Structure formats: structure tokens, C-alpha cells
Amino acid sequence: QVQLVESGGGSVQARGSLRLSCAASANTYRSFYVGWFRQTPGKERERVAHILQRSGHTYYVDSVVKGRFTISRDNAKNMLYLQMDSLKPEDTAMYYCAANSNGGGWDIWGQGTQVTVSS
User: CB count, 10 Å around CB of 71?
Assistant: First the structure.
């Protein structure tokens, strides 16, 4: 069973916007946390933003997003989103949707969606 499926990546020019979507299975959507990570070749995967599902509280890695990204969810559809505005070439990466099913670690991952920002 595929638990997380990302979509919405693509190529965009600097200062443009993209909205990433992540479709979760019902069980995965009930995870402790759900969130977005990104990775570029040769670098470690880094967290971008996540949501504590119990409360809906959102968390951002300020050094990464600097107020440009917004994470949101649709509980009725088991969907997670990442709105990315004012994109920069350094935002180019593979973006992953992930779930922390029981609070112990990020243990469920999607296949990723590529975002490419050109200058």
C-alpha cells in the first residue's frame, strides 16, 4: 500500500511559486507528525516544515523557509500541502512528504517530487 504520494513539483523561475501536494493513506494521515523535507545531491535531507496532527500546530525551519513557505492540510481529504513563494535557485531540490507515525522518528516517506528554480 502506497502511503504518501507527492505531486506538484516542476520548473519555475526565481521569485515564482509552486504548491506541492501530498496524498496520504488514511492510516498514515493519523500519524503524530506529517511534514515536508528536501534534499539536494551530496547533501543531507533537511526538514522544511511539519504539522503536529493532534493540534494542527505548524513548525517551520526558519533558516530554510524564511517566511516564504506555508504548510497546510485538508483533513477531509487526507492531504498535506506546501505553498512555496518567492522561490530562489537554492530551493532547487527533491521535496519529500513524510510522516512520523508515533513520535519516535520520521518513518514513512513518499517518493519525492523535483522542484527546479532557475535564475
Answer: 20
